[in-house]
Amino acid sequence: MTRVLVVDDEPQIVRALVINLKARKYEVDAAADGAAALQLAAARHPDVIVLDLGLPDMDGVDVIKGLRGWSRVPILVLSARHSSDEKVEALDAGADDYVTKPFGMDELLARLRAAVRRAEPATGGGSEDDAVVDAGDFTVDLAAKKVHRGDRDVRLTPTEWHLLEVLVRNTGRLVSQKQLLQEVWGPSYGTETNYLRVYMAQLRRKLEADPSHPAHFITEPGMGYRFER
Fold first, then answer.
1. Domain limit, last residue, from 87, 119, 151
2. How does pLDDT run across 19-48, given as a tens digit for each residue?
């Protein structure tokens, strides 16, 4: 069963989420503050976390940063903060998606399912010939879902990996913003271009020799992105 950690200090929201998730056969843990969330995440190893940013003891962004220090678990932010800057801050810290309050339960559950799917190991796939892509500065092992730069593994979140994988499998070809959003986040996405800006910046920071002058992750302004070896 998929285990969900719900982090929110509003009891009515926690109750609604717990009831709806358990009805769909999820296992659910709940925390009302950031410290409890971090402890539960370490103890229970959830498959996905639903996290409110407005917690009583610390900002949710700090919880995300704390989790990303050791975990790649998908994080779905649930918050009353609506501004683009605040969404980008949460995504930049390592969140995988962002839902604003008030929210529709069906939409939240669909986004949660999508986050879990992105974190699942790939089954099947390409031939052995295309399993490892050498970009010079780094190598991408598509079969093992690993990236090596120099003599070390590069740690990517599930969303970062999925974005990288789509681009690498289309090496040399322009992938439109809409296609990337729909392949990585799901079919209901198409306009959340700030997600792409944030995650492309993260991939460049982790993999490019000079992130400010990328050689591999190329932006085609207003259109999309292209991966070059």
1. 119
2. 999 999 999 999 999 999 999 999 999 999
